[in-house]
Design a protein that fits this description.
CATH superfamily: NAD(P)-binding Rossmann-like Domain
Bound molecules: nicotinamide-adenine-dinucleotide
Structural class: alpha/beta
CATH architecture: 3-Layer(aba) Sandwich
Strand content: 15-25%
CATH topology: Rossmann fold
Strand order of the largest sheet: 3-4-2-1-5-6-7-12
Helix content: 40-55%
Length: about 350
């Protein structure tokens, strides 16, 4: 099987590529290495995979650790380059993880979401149309459930109430995938991820930015006074879910929740994170956390709760995420301590 992973230098992309290679698959990864967050983290993930890349490079290079891995700086917005890649390789499975993430950022930067998430995805769909693939898997998001009040969120629920442009682009991706399946018979699977965290994570997400701020002695801002409930999902569980779903090629077009099915309050999450920072000796046991917290009202675009119904995932692939916040945050903090020491 030959896989194309877009967004391969990203957080989830990095973990997925590693998993696919460990299982002996042939993988081509692409990413535009944009500066939404520190590009050195993206280059660091590539380096872990034996790809010594710099931002000025364009060529597709071979990993020195994994003979079956190649990576190239390619933007899914570059239609011709993407077409050329598809015409040269015979991809069996395409997994589109490239895109602009982040809910709050979409309020100030709407165009980057339409470009990367909608036009970029269209380019991927067009390539899959002209160079047929066995399965197109793509990232969606729990944010499609928007202002829904019925929990847990089920794939059967209507998703007509997005509360951010980010969410609207993800819902649009699901509709586009439906259309391409209907018109051209491409089997598609959309993955509604729920707040993913873990090693090599994203610095714009709370667990990472809180860690950095606390270590710098700054205050952290906790919105909705810490009462938001999130289904925090450990990245290894996300990758396990993706890995099982890749092999389950649908007759039509499917979407699945991949979430922990166990929402926890932001305040509990912060408390565990703090305990783990102390345990890893990144902060002293007597650190005054209360003095470094600002409890603030809800932010526009945010939703009060995310909670995944995982019965469909369980039914089709016999798996549901189960890593506890304690274990997941411990592993993140251990990675972070090591990473900061190295850079
Ligand atoms: N992490 C989460 O909690 C979460 C939750 C729901 C959905 N998602 C979605 O999953 C996907 C992967 O998320 P992530 O957390 O790994 O984010 P990430 O930002 O770490 O990874 C995305 C990667 O895509 C690349 N990229 C962006 N635009 C591109 C383009 N035009 N061409 C090529 N590459 C491009 C970026 O450089 C980045 O490396 C995203 O679509 C995100 O919206 C993530």
């Amino acid at each position: 099987m030959t896989f194309l992973i877009t967004g391969a230098a990203g957080f989830i992309g990095y973990h997925l590529v590693k998993r696919l290679l460990k299982k002996g698959n042939d993988v081509v990864g692409i990413d535009n290495l944009n500066h939404y967050y520190d590009v050195n983290l993206k280059l660091g993930r590539l380096s872990e995979m034996g790809i010594d890349y710099s931002e000025s490079m364009r060529e597709i290079v071979q990993s020195c650790k994994f003979p079956l891995y190649r990576f190239g700086k390619i933007d899914i917005l570059e239609r011709e380059t993407l077409n050329e890649l598809f015409s040269q390789e015979e991809f069996d499975i395409v997994i589109n993880l490239a895109g602009q993430a982040g809910v709050r950022y979409s309020i100030e930067n709407p165009y980057t979401y339409i470009d990367n998430n909608i036009v970029g995805f269209l380019n991927v769909l067009e390539c899959c149309r002209h160079y047929p693939v066995k399965h197109l898997v793509y990232s969606s998001s729990s944010s499609v459930y928007g202002g829904n009040t019925k929990v847990p969120f089920s794939e059967e629920d209507r998703v007509d109430n997005p509360v951010s442009l980010y969410a609207a682009t993800k819902k649009t991706n699901e509709l586009m995938a439906n259309v391409y399946n209907h018109l051209f018979g491409i089997p598609t699977t959309g993955l509604r991820f729920f707040t993913v965290y873990g090693s090599w994570g994203r610095p714009d997400m709370a667990y990472y930015s809180f860690t950095e701020k606390l270590l710098r002695g700054e205050s952290i801002k906790i919105f909705n006074y810490g009462n938001c409930m999130r289904d925090f999902t450990y990245v290894d569980d996300i990758v396990e879910g993706i890995y099982r779903l890749i092999k389950r090629i649908p007759d039509g077009s499917m979407v699945y929740n991949i979430g922990n099915n166990h929402p926890e309050s932001l305040l509990d999450f912060v408390n565990i994170l703090q305990e783990e920072l102390v345990r890893a000796k990144l902060l002293p046991a007597d650190y005054d956390f209360a003095a470094h917290r600002e409890l603030l009202p809800m932010q526009p675009g945010d939703v009060p709760v995310t909670y995944a119904d995982t019965s469909k995932l369980e039914k089709y692939v016999g798996f549901k995420p189960s890593t506890s916040l304690r274990d997941g945050l411990r592993s993140f903090v251990e990675w972070y301590a090591d990473y900061k020491f190295r850079v």
